Structure formats: structure tokens, C-alpha cells
Amino acid sequence: MKVVIAVTTDHAVQYHADLARYMSDNGWDVTFISSGGDSLDSLGEDVAVEHIPMERNPSPLKDLGSLFKWIRVLYRIRPDIVISGTPKAGLLGMMSSRLLRVPNRIYWLHGLRLETASGKMRTLLELIERFVIASATTTVAVSPSLRNLVLSMGLAKESDISVIGSGSTQGVDTLRFAPTNDDAERAAEKARWGLDPNLLTIGFVGRLTKDKGIEELCEASVSLLEKASNFQVFLVGPLEDAAGERVIAEMEARGVPFVAPGKIDDTSAAFKAMDIFCLPSYREGLPNVVLEAFASGLPVVATSVTGNTDLIDPGENGLLVEARDSEALRGALDAVIRDPNLRTELGSRALVTARSEFDVQHVISEQLRFLKAVSSRANESTH
């Protein structure tokens, strides 16, 4: 059976790379499409790959050119299933596969960008989501809360959108992401990244953008510095908007101890240098970075937004605060900094959650069963 899996950017290839390899190893003829880059090229050692340039933001002329390339590639491959996720690949993949009457068109919904949009942009994004979901034969939401949001907005009928198992794009590799063995190993990892081995490390992994709540993390860190001096901040990820640049400048100006190495290839090493993980984002689907922090045995402080609420049981395996509330974020971080027993308890329960519900092999096995069932039903309906 021929399958096409697609995402927009090279960064997003990781979301479905393990699924693509697993399907290929089990006899599926897999082609992976993205805009291209090192991750796609690396995946090309295991599956066929196609480079189709796609712009993340609306760009009518370029998008039209990308659509024609999509149609040519799909016409040549003639897939039985097209799986596309992330906004632009979702739009182009579902549009082209519908035009070519691909029998199984699966829109893998990673999140709703429109959650943090307003005005005409929100209206446009909502229209696009409605069109993409209508073009798909089925939509997969990566978390129950995301599915509920889609239904509450009237973007899909209940029968048209599913969650596989507990959710997630591909779970977490609990062998690669694992707790540090002892304090000495953590201290060594901190030194490796230029961090102070003697300070508690609040870690963040993701794009340094406004929607990820980094401004609130900065404000909370500045406020914390007035009451506690035994912490530092580790910002892992690329600068992608002015908010990220402002945060770096503000932390430097206010004397917050931090290290920001930019984008790194193996984030499992970065988690080993952290004592606390913080994700203060405004929206999520089901955040892989929280699963990676869980698997690393870290206590997590996050915002009570879509996706985060599916993973974190407040007071059990993490703490939740309202989004955009830097003072609430400061309070939660302060509580975890000051209480080593709380850090240990939250981290231990988080590790159980990762291993019991979201191990990559378990998640991908469930996804493969789902895809087989979907394709079987489609084949039966055509005969």
C-alpha cells in the first residue's frame, strides 16, 4: 500500500518520522514530503522523500505553485493514503489529494493556529481549517482537548474527527529521553552547556516566539530574581520573532542568569541539564516537549491551554497556571524551586505517565492499527 506523509517545514519532520520508518519496515511503500532540509534528507535513508517548497504564512502565488507541484507528485505516486499535518501541508495535501480522488485523506491536526489569531487573520484561518477538514476523509486530533475545541467551534462533525489512544503525534522515545543518573551527571551536563553546575536550571525548549509565552517566562524570571538567586534559565530553540529578541535583551539587562544556545539537534542532552521544565505557551496541540520532559523525569510548570491540560494533572505530575499570567507563573516556579520534595514527586509521576501512556512504540502501534482500520473501511466502501 502506497502512503504519503507530509508536513510543512523540516522542523516538523520529527513529528512523523518514526511512524514513516515503522510503516516502511512493515511493508508499506512510504513517501515523505516537506519543504526540505537536514531532517528530511536524513529520513531519506529509510523512505522515499520529496522536496516541495511550502511557505508557513499565506502567500497566494507561491502557494499556487506549491499546489501544482503537489498535484504532479501525487499523480506520479498514486498513493492509497495521504496523511498531512501542520497548516500549509495540511491545506495543500488535502486539496491536491481530493482533486486526484485519493481514497484515504487523513488530516493530522497538530493544533489550531487560529487560537491566538484575531481579526481578518483569524477569519481566514478558520475558513482554511473548515475547508481542510471537509476535504479530508478523516481528521486525527493529537489530543482530546484539541478535538473538543474543534467540535465546540463547529469545524467538524463528531464522526469526522478522532483521537488515537491518549493522543500525541508520535509519543516519546523513553530510551533516548531518560532521567539523569545522579546529581553529578546533571552538574556535568550543565557545565557542558555553559550553565552554572551549582544553580537550579529552569529549562524551555521550543521556538522563541510570543505564542510560546517567553515574555511571561522572562517577566517571571525577573520577579523571581528579586526573591531567589539560586536559579538560571536555559532557553533551547531558535529565535523566530521580535519577542524572542526582546526577551534575550531584557534578561541580559536585568541580570537574569541564562544560556540560549539556539536550535540544537539532540534535545535529550539539553533536558539532562534541567531541574525544572517550563512551557508557558498560549496554545498547543499536545506538546512533544512536555512528553520529553516527563520522560526525563522533570517536574513541569505549564499553562492550562489546549494540549497541556491532557498531559498534566495539577499537583500530581506537574503544575498548571493561566496563560499570559506572569505572576502566577512566578508563583508556581517559586514553589518548585523552594521544595525539592515537590520536584522529586512531580518528576517521578511524570516519568510514569510518559512510560505508561506515551512510549513511542506503543503510540505508533496504535496509529498503525488505526490507519489499517481506516484504509480497510475505505476499501470496503469502494467495492
From TrEMBL:
Molecular function in Gene Ontology: glycosyltransferase activity
One protein family per Pfam: Glyco_trans_4_4
Domain of life: Bacteria
UniProt GO BP: carbohydrate derivative biosynthetic process; liposaccharide metabolic process
Keywords, sorted A to Z: Glycosyltransferase, Transferase
Listed InterPro entries: Glyco_trans_1, Glyco_trans_4-like_N, Glycosyltransferase_grp1
Residue stretches making up the Glycosyltransferase subfamily 4-like N-terminal domain: 14-165
Domain Glycosyl transferase family, first and last residues per copy: 187-350
Leader sequence residues: none
Protein known as: Glycosyltransferase family 4 protein
Species of provenance: Corynebacterium wankanglinii
